[in-house]
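Dear colleague,

Thank you for sharing your sequence with our group. We've completed the structure prediction you requested, and as agreed, I am returning the results in plain text so they can be pasted directly into your records. Please verify that the sequence below matches your submission; if there's any discrepancy, let me know and we will rerun it promptly.
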Amino acid sequence: MSVIAEVSVSADSAVAAELSAVVSVLRELRCDDLSGRATFDAMGQVLALRNLIDHHAARLAAQLDRLGVARDHGRSTRELLIVMGFAPSVAQRLLRIAASLDTLPTLHAHAADAAIPAEHLDAIVRGVSHIAGRSAEPIDDALRLTHVTDLLGQYFSGATPADIDTRARTLGNQLASDTNGPPAAEDRQLNELTHHRDTDGRLHLDASLDLEVGEKLCAALNALSAPRPQPDGSRDPRTIARRHADALDTILDIAARMPSDIASAAPKTQLLLTIPADTPTLAELDLLGSVTQATLRRLSCDAATTTLLVDDERVPLDISREKRFVPPHIRKALHVRDECCIKCGAPANRTQAHHLTHWIDGGDTSLDNSCLLCPACHTDIHHNGWDVFLGTDRHPWLIPPAAVDPTRTPLPAHNRRTLNLDNLSAAA
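Please find the predicted structure tokens below.
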């Protein structure tokens, strides 16, 4: 055996021996006869020890992954940790923390000092990831450090992991408002829903949804999953997960009973949007948190959104009226005039009504101030610099952003396009 190999084996043995000694000490520890003060102090030391153990567990998880220990046995590192005895959620948390060791050194320096529990550490890691995901461009190290410092400040001021998550969403929303294009949390192009059957024949769903669709789903599930007391007055025995599954069943039944012609149907799911009067950039949906101003404008077109203006103490100052919703007779007229999404040609029954002059900017709800856009194109219009106006032919026209067409030549609605643009005079 070479000298290097001998040194390596010796170091391995030393670490294992030290950890074994710590385990032995803890096994023999007795705290039953301590005074109140001594018990409090001991709990503080146990917390520090727990923080250090979680920190080293994350570092060891990173090393297991780097060395390919699980791959050598045909497993993922997560599967290996679960087999070793870690709960699946804990294994996933350790791997999330492990993946951030190189990119968030300041955060992990605090973890190495036993200053932060794993739950808060994980909340900050997820928060920084969320903020980065809401930026249209990659964030640099300096900006990442600014966000880590902000979230660490939340922890040291007494914030819970949920509070840190809320703060991260707010920071992500502010960053998204300063960048071009929809942030990841509001990008419909990233939406996915997959399903597969297991060996018992049961169907498993997995979805990744943008804020608006997610808010609609959560609102619908919440509305239909309220606990139902038993006939004798006892509590509903169903778990929350079971009640949500029953609510999904109800949603599918409702959809199946809808008429085939749903082009004129008004939105049914009610969304609540709260806007602080002094900081309107911090507008947030009731269930899923903050949204950008571009999404606020898009929601005000056709989604059933009630806008609530509040002061700094969250006392309501004003509440919007719902007259902005396009009524059935105008939706039918839009169906006849536009026939489809004016931008991409998606079928009319998959579209939303868009206000050419935004409702929140004083635009009225009328045929001449509306057009049909599918959800993806609706997002594109609001986020990426497209303009829509009514031509002299009383049909909607689109003006592309300069990034798409440097001349910004008007385009007719999809149902009125030909192989040439010889009808440009109608746009004047």
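Summary note from our side: The first strand starts at residue 192 and ends at 197.

Kind regards,
the structure core
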